[in-house]
Amino acid sequence: MPISHLVKDAIPYGGTGLTAFINDAARTNYSEASETRALNTIDFNPVIYPVLKLVEGRPKRISLQGVVGLFPFRLKLTPGAEWKITFNPKLDETKMPKIIVTDGKGEWVEYLMAGGINRDTIDYWKIK
Question: Superkingdom, according to UniProt (predicted)?
Answer without folding.
Answer: Bacteria
